[in-house]
Automatic annotation (TrEMBL):
Domain HTH marR-type positions: 8-143
Keyword Transcription regulation listed: yes
InterPro entries: HTH_MarR-typ (IPR000835), WH-like_DNA-bd_sf (IPR036388), WH_DNA-bd_sf (IPR036390)
Domain of life: Bacteria
Species assigned in the record: Caldicellulosiruptor morganii
Name of the protein: MarR family transcriptional regulator
Keyword DNA-binding: yes
Length: 158
């Protein structure tokens, strides 16, 4: 397929519409926030660290497209609630490395289970063929987005 303005516009339009629909209609983010007190940005940070391992605040900021000054209070809250710890990098003490605590890993697991339960309810509305198609499309989408971003190699096993 040739990359032209129409194709780019349609891809952008679909991306901009599907992601909010997923969050609002499938994952019901407000329910988890009410139960555990952490909004989507906090959970994105925790899942990112869980998926890719300990990383600097600037790397987290880059991967989530949030400025470092805006990321700092988010990280500080996660530290104060015991979900992550901050260590200095051995070869450069100015760089702080953020990693999950056991409590943070437990919350990621709870969140993942919560997401899976919500998703299972929604998937029950689809046929087996539709579920298989969705599985394939999402797996392929993830691969393509990572390729487009040219970043974020997940740790082995993920």
């Amino acid at each position: 397929m040739e990359i032209n303005e129409k194709v780019v516009n349609e891809i952008a339009e679909n991306m901009l519409s599907i992601f909010p629909m997923l969050m609002k209609n499938i994952f019901k983010k407000d329910e988890f926030t009410e139960e555990y007190g952490l909004g989507p940005r906090y959970m994105h940070i925790l899942h990112l660290i869980d998926d890719f391992g300990p990383m600097s605040i600037s790397e987290i900021s880059k991967r989530l497209s949030v400025s470092a000054p805006n990321m700092t209070p988010l990280i500080e809250r996660l530290i104060s609630e015991g979900y992550v710890i901050k260590n200095s990098q051995e070869n450069d003490r100015r760089i702080s490395i953020i990693q999950l605590t056991p409590k943070g890993r437990e919350l990621v697991l709870l969140h993942t289970n919560w997401l899976n339960q919500n998703l299972k309810k929604r998937l029950e509305r689809l046929s087996h063929d539709e579920i298989e198609e969705l599985w394939y499309v999402l797996k392929r989408l993830k691969k393509l987005v990572l390729k487009m971003a040219d970043c974020c190699k997940q740790r082995e096993g993920n």
